[in-house]
Amino acid sequence: MMRRAVALAAWVGDGRPVTATGVLKPVDIPGAMAAMGLAAPARVRTAADVEALHRPWVAAQAVGLVEVGLGRVKATGGTPANGLEPWWTALAAVLRAESHDRQAEGASALCRMLLAVLAGEPPLDDIEDLVNERLHNAAGGWLIGAAYQAFRRGVMPVDAAAELLGEFGAVDDEQRLTALGRWADERFAAAAPQPVPADLAAADLLNRLVGLAEREAWDVVRQWLAGRDVQQAVAEVLSAAEQARPAARVAGIDLVGGLGAAMRPLWRSALKRPMLAPHARAALASWDAPGRAASEADQCWLAVEYALAVEDLEEAWHLVDDFGGPRVVDASTHPDAAALLEALNTAGRPPCRVYQLKVVLSNVRPPVWRRLRVPAALPLDALHYVIQAAFGWHDDHLHLFEAGRQRYADVDFKFDECDDESGARLAKVLPNGGTMTYVYDMGDWWEHRITVERVDELDDPAVDVVIVCVGGRGDAPVEDWNPEDGPNTRPFDVDAINHRLTALFDGL
């Protein structure tokens, strides 16, 4: 598979035309197949239907061998890095393409589970039973859960997973692990989260949570809380958080916040602790006075706290800007405010980047898409509103984003295994460009493919980027359409879209 991806990139060279869906035009299919040493089928509707071409095509994009832009693809001139990551990145991309984005995580997890089962050299006729048994008996966790759901729902049968692993060189014709397959299994096993010791101290727990994705963090928290009195355990967490570094303290605050209003008495007790009081006031206000803004002093204090917690100066700059800029740090009573301000000034403001996005509504004919320019620092919750404005919708339904193995949604709706979209900036989710999925209306399942077409760096890092629609095509469907309401589509009107975007962000 990877050899074919490299050969395909070499054939692409300085550029080839692509269709609106980002695949090769039918006239170029024979040449691309010949470059990989394969024969082209006689009759083809689209290159996406030719599995032997589409899989290495997806893999080549995933590992950065080719870049697909507006109407054209070109080779980057790069080569895949050594190690397991590019290999798994390519495999995961193919899984996403073939199992629908919303099920790709489960299919990926199932492939990892299959590697572990095959490492035990099972009888060939027992592989599916052994996978089923492993999934039933394994300890909880997002990986096991995702694999189990993929297996039970038939997203990817075990024999299909084995076939795909064979194309990637991990399994041979007799469904035995190759040297690559064993290496991959060992690497994944070594990287798997370790069980949480029953006697793990609260301070060590907080340090362990730093840097984990939300769902992985909650796997750890659930293990740690098992068999403990929750009130006593949370009291220990808050005591440890008071003395912790900002990143660990915020992890503890998130832990307690995730346990809900039942923790009110402990939040009230935290009001007497200087390093916890601003967090406690914010938590209590979320139940007792929803919508009420924190005091200016607390906003300044929390701006410093969260900027220090990310331990990344570029992200710290964006967080500080969200709160009002460096003047907020200068006015803060946080004990580390002066150190943060000095670090920010020394590093200098990060470059201002603009992402050009093509947002395509999937499975709609004729095609419906919008081209948008937005700041790279835009959080996904704001991008949601931008897309709503671009298609003329009214935010009447649930939504989620998916990039790679990670999902993001509005934290208030408690989607399983989703991180908070308000804390995920576009540049962090897609740091090197690429694609992600946005789904709106879980009933109608309006799925969008979001592709980063280009990234521009502005000369002045302090400039405000205007969010704007610069192009598009197709009339967007009307949500919750009723025949009595008139037409079931809204005509594409770039001026109307930009008017809505201006009104949206002028009101923030």
UniProtKB/TrEMBL annotation:
Coiled coil: none annotated. Residues 354-481 form the Plasmid pRiA4b Orf3-like domain. InterPro entries: MM3350-like_sf (IPR024047), Plasmid_pRiA4b_Orf3-like (IPR012912). This is Plasmid pRiA4b Orf3-like domain-containing protein. It comes from Dactylosporangium darangshiense.
